[in-house]
Amino acid sequence: MKRRFISTEKNNLLSSAVIYTIGLVLVRGLGFISAPIFTNLLTPADYGITSTFATWTLLMQTVFSLYTQGSLVAALKDYKGKEYDRYVSSILNLSGICFVICGALYLGNLGWISRMLGYTKFIAILLIISAYVSFVFNFYQVKLIYEGKDLQYILSSFVISLSSILVSYGLIRILPVNLAVDGRLVGGVIPLLVITAGYLFFQYRRGWCFYSKEFWKYAVELSVPMIFTTLANVFLSQIARLMLQHLSGEHEAGIYSFAYTLGEIPSFIRLGIFNAWLPWYFRMISKKENVPNIVNMARMLSRFFCVIILGFVFVSPEVYKILSPESYWEGIPILMYIAAGMYFYFITCFYSARFQYDKRNKWISYITVISATVNVILNELLIPSYGFMGAAAVSMIAYIVLYAAYLFLAQRNNSMDGITGKVFRFDIILLAVGCAVYFLLKNHAVIRWVIGICLGIYLVCYFFNTRSLFKSLQDKEKESV
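^ that's the sequence the OP posted. Answer follows.
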């Protein structure tokens, strides 16, 4: 069936956002429900190993694959039908060849690499396998998002999340206590191996192309700049775990990693919104008369997410205690900084979407590298003295720098079609005031929960009050398509 970059009218922003968000609540909910299980089965040091393993997996899959999925959004516009399928198969082969070359060099220096990472040789070997299967699965997920296949995206995410938890739990219970961390890591890789094999088989059946000079050149030109962007994003969100491990030990890294995981609870809503926003935005931006619609939608989504962040901040200490044993509770104070940083990351996505659409990926790279550099420098200065508290504060500062850089470049080049700093100004002030109130009331749980419930009521009312505007914007989209 022929794909269209412009989706059907039924695939509108509101319904897609609801589907993505509900689905991601279920998927991420599995992770948070399982958190008390794994924090009781793994020590903070073991938890630190699993978190740094995930960070290294992301770094390796990004570099070794050439990040070819970064070209898919443009390819959807430039290649149609069978040609698009051939393009996808060809660039998957390009990434596979790069993985073989890099993997051979990696395994040839396995002893040194395992010592450098602080892992056993078994975990170091598992790392390269995890990097490849994670790349293929992420490639598949990105493809589904850009094609507007929200239900398939949610189903595949749910299956991987649930199977990973079940297999990991089974292995941890079977293996000796000293191999519990191995069981957790292997349990995460096995389901990805299965789905990777299945996806590659069906993708190659749809359209086989081993090599195409045109396809490979197209992918490299668009994707390579995104490698630096993705690496910089990893530095922004996860490099603190590696630096804590190096500067303060596995225990500090484990506490920070669990707190950061919990502090990212609102991120599944962020992902739900932007997984729906991207295809809608790409349709709307093609016509200049749709600029007011984009601005209004961005303003509504910003308010929605800002209130979610504040609601989470006010109730987070008690949620943290429910999901973790007392040995992890010292990480509670950093939740506010992590959540606040999530809001600034959220609003930067409005700018990066336009830069991707305009194929200005180098701009995204420059901005993200600047923010990541600030992150690394400040972490180097603050972690030795303040540990994970310093890392959390630096994370928030780095995301603020990221937003400021995007805003400066967007306004300087007049490239955002109406999404200026004014769109988010009130919500930024609201977030700052809310965090200040939380800080004053951090020891008053009842008052905080009352405020959190009030924010929840406001959110529901805001949603129903803006439904008519959502519908109006969708009607205008249908008229413009």
